[in-house]
Amino acid sequence: MSNRRSFLKKSIAGVALLGAAPLVGEPLVAGTSESNAVKPKAAKAVNPFQLGMAGFTFVNFDLETTLKTLKSLDVHYLCIKDFHLPFKSTDEEIKAFHEKCASYGVTGYAVGPIYMKTKEEVDRGFEYAKRVGVKLIVGVPGYDLLPYVDEKVKAYDFHYAIHLHGPDIKEYPDAKDAWEHTKDLDPRMGMCLDIGHDLRNGCDPVADLKKYHTRVFDMHIKDVTDSTKAGRGIEIGRGKIDFPALVKMMRKINYTGKCSLEYEKDMKDPFLGIAESIGYFKAVSDYA
After folding, report:
1. Where are the beta strands (DSSP E) in 185-248?
2. DSSP letters of 38-73?
3. What is the rounded CA–CA span in Å between residue 123 and residue 152?
4. According to the model, what pLDDT value does residue 28 have?
């Protein structure tokens, strides 16, 4: 909360200053000196990040509602879930899906998370991604399946990002665990760094991004109320994650993947929370 308060106080102070001061370029008032004149406002930082949406955010809503929401928020990337595009979709249905996304200015950039407990489910997931036309799978394979997934990554030339799940399930609770299970595999094997679940497992997502960034291919951005299993989803900026520090680290390591909001509070009526979260992240990304 302190980060949010500090950020908002600076924003309000900046607005107040602009309202009270003369515009840059106005003549100096008699009796003032150059040192007292209003200096040009520093240019905001260039925002290189590609903001997206994790499809799970809209588990209770159809594709049309999802795309309308993304368009209204100026968000252009979607990680595709199978409830919007089923595994058994025909080529014609996949084409229609992409055309509908494009009509709203949205690109489906990955599929998942896809849970994989058997080799047959691994096969299905890779074939699905190939037919959908993406090169990134966000997946959750059993530990015993990792050698087989590694073979598939080589055969398909895909990136495979393992989704973190915090303390809720034993497999891949945090970034360190995903790193330990992929560091000796193909370099296209890595993780989807879910910063909320990483924090809920007692880890520091900013430090983990720095430490493991060579294997971070996707990020699920969210905020949570606590750095324990009791932590629950909340609007970005209201919880425990230091987003200015996160954005600075993303710049430092030159992160080029997507940053997809996965909003898990009020999932049957998430729209105000989604808008607040996107707005806060965009503001921090522009100025941090």
Report:
1. 189-194, 216-221, 223-224, 233-234
2. PPPPPPPPP---EEEEEGGGGTTS-HHHHHHHHHHT
3. 8
4. 38
Say which residue the tokens 């989704």 belong to: 163
Strands (E), the chain: 50-54, 77-80, 107-116, 136-141, 159-163, 189-194, 216-221, 223-224, 233-234, 258-261
Neighbouring residues of 55: CB distance < 8 A, sequence distance ≥ 6: 66, 78, 79, 80, 81, 83, 84
Q: What tokens appear for 263 in the block?
A: 């909003």
Interacting residues of 22 by C-beta distance below 8 A, sequence separation 6+: 29, 38
- Please name the residues in contact with 149: beta carbons below 8 A apart, sequence gap of 6 or more: 116, 122, 139, 141, 160, 189
For the chain, what is the radius of gyration of the CA atoms? 21
Number of Cβ within 10 Å of residue 68's Cβ equals 13
Predicted TM-score of the model (pTM)? 0.84
- Looking up tokens 């040009």, which residue turns up? 40
Cβ contacts of 222-225, under 8 Å, gap ≥ 24: 222/194, 222/195, 222/196, 222/261, 222/262, 222/263, 222/264, 222/277, 223/196, 223/277, 224/196, 224/199, 224/200
Please give the pLDDT value at position 14.
37
Place of tokens 């890595």: 190
Kindly give the pairing relationship between strand 189-194 and strand 233-234: unpaired
Q: Do residues 193 and 164 touch, judged by C-beta distance below 8 A?
A: yes
| Tokens (6 digits) for 119 | 């080799």
- 202-214 average pLDDT score: 98
Give the phi and the psi of residue 192 in degrees, each rounded to 5.
-100, 105
172, burial (CB in 10 Å: exposed 0-12, middle 13-18, buried 19+): buried
Give residue-wise pLDDT tens across range 252-273: 999 999 999 999 999 999 999 9
